[in-house]
C-alpha cells in the first residue's frame, strides 16, 4: 500500500492554479485514468477548461463552486463532481482564507479511444 | 455536471461499516472503475478485506489508519491510499468522535479481465 497527497506532491503552476500530476508517481501508469491534485488559492479560480475527457473532481479540502455556462454547483469538502466530456467549466474557491484542494481523475470515454492531452 | 456525496447517498451495512455503492447513481456505468462511499464510525474498523481489484481509497473526511499484515499507514483527510491487487487490508478509524469517510475506487487490473464481485 502506498499513500499519496497534495501536501507532499510536486506542484506546478497550470490553468491559474497549482497542479500535481500523478505522472510524478512511478508505477501508476497502469491506472485506468489519469489524475492530478489541484490546489486553488483562496479567492481564486481556475482558467476556463474544456476537454474531451470525462472528469471526476473530488473535493478533499476547502469548498468549491463549479461554474458551467449559466449553471453553478457548490461542492463542499467530501463531495465529488462529475463533468461530462467537453463540458466547459471553471472552479472557484470563494473562501478568503482556506485553499481548495481537489483530486481530479479523468479519462477518455470509450467511444473516443485512448489519446488526448487531458485537462 | 453532477454532484454526489456520502451525505446524500443511500448507505447500507457491509463489511462492518456503512457503504454507499455508486451503482445507485444512474448513468455511471460507463466509468472505467467501480466506486463506493465508505463511512467508518468513530472507534470502529472495517472487516479484513482482500480482493483482486486494485483499490484507491481517498480520505474525504476524518482520518484513517490502514493495516496490511505487519504494516500500518496513517492517512489524514485529503490523502489517498493505493492498494495492490489481493493486498489484504483493514481500515481503522481511531478517532473517538469523528466519522471516517472515504471514496473507494476500484478496478480489475488489465491482466485479470473485467469480472469479479469487488470489495
Give a verbal description of the structure.
2 copies of one chain form a homodimer. With 119 residues, the first copy, chain A, is mostly beta strands. Chain A has strands at 2-4, 12-14, 17-21, 34-40, 54-61, 64-68, 71-75, 80-83, 90-92, 100-107. In chain A, the strands form 2 sheets. In chain A, strands 2-3-4-10-5-8 form a 6-stranded antiparallel beta sheet, with no helix packed on it. The first copy, chain A, has a 3-stranded antiparallel beta sheet with strand order 7-6-9, with no helix packed on it. In chain A, strand 2 and strand 3 (17-21) form a beta hairpin. The relative contact order of chain A is 0.26. The interface between A and B is large, with 41 and 41 residues. Strand 8 (80-83) of chain A pairs antiparallel with strand 1 (2-4) of chain B, so a sheet runs across the interface.
So what's the overall shape of chain A?
Answer: globular
Total helical elements of chain A: 0
Give the oligomeric state of the chains in this entry, treating copies of one chain as homo and distinct chains as hetero: homodimer
Give the distance, in angstroms, between the N- and C-terminal Cα atoms of chain A: 27 Å
* Overall number of strands of chain A: 10
Overall radius of gyration of chain A: 14 Å
**What portion of residues of chain A is helical?**
under 10%
Strand content of chain A: 35-45%
Q: Biggest protein-protein interface?
A: A-B, 41 and 41 residues
Spans of chain A of at least 5 consecutive residues whose pLDDT stays below 50 are none
- pLDDT averaged over residues of chain A: 93
Please give the largest β-sheet of chain A: 6 strands, antiparallel
Strand order of the largest sheet of chain A: 2-3-4-10-5-8
What class would the helix/strand composition of chain A place it in?
mainly beta
- The H-and-E topology of chain A, N to C, reads as EEEEEEEEEE
Amino acid at each position: 500500500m502506498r499513500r499519496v497527497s497534495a501536501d507532499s506532491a510536486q506542484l506546478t503552476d497550470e490553468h491559474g492554479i497549482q497542479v500535481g500530476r500523478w505522472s510524478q508517481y512511478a508505477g501508476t501508469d497502469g491506472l485506468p485514468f489519469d489524475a492530478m491534485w489541484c490546489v486553488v488559492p483562496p479567492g481564486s479560480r481556475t482558467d476556463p477548461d474544456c476537454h474531451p475527457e470525462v472528469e471526476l473532481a473530488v473535493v478533499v479540502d476547502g469548498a468549491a463552486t463549479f461554474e458551467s455556462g449559466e449553471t453553478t454547483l457548490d461542492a463542499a469538502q467530501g463531495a465529488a463532481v462529475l463533468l461530462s466530456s467537453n463540458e466547459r467549466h471553471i472552479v472557484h474557491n470563494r473562501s478568503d482564507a482556506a485553499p481548495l484542494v481537489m483530486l481530479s481523475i479523468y479519462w477518455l470515454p470509450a467511444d473516443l479511444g485512448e489519446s488526448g492531452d487531458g485537462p
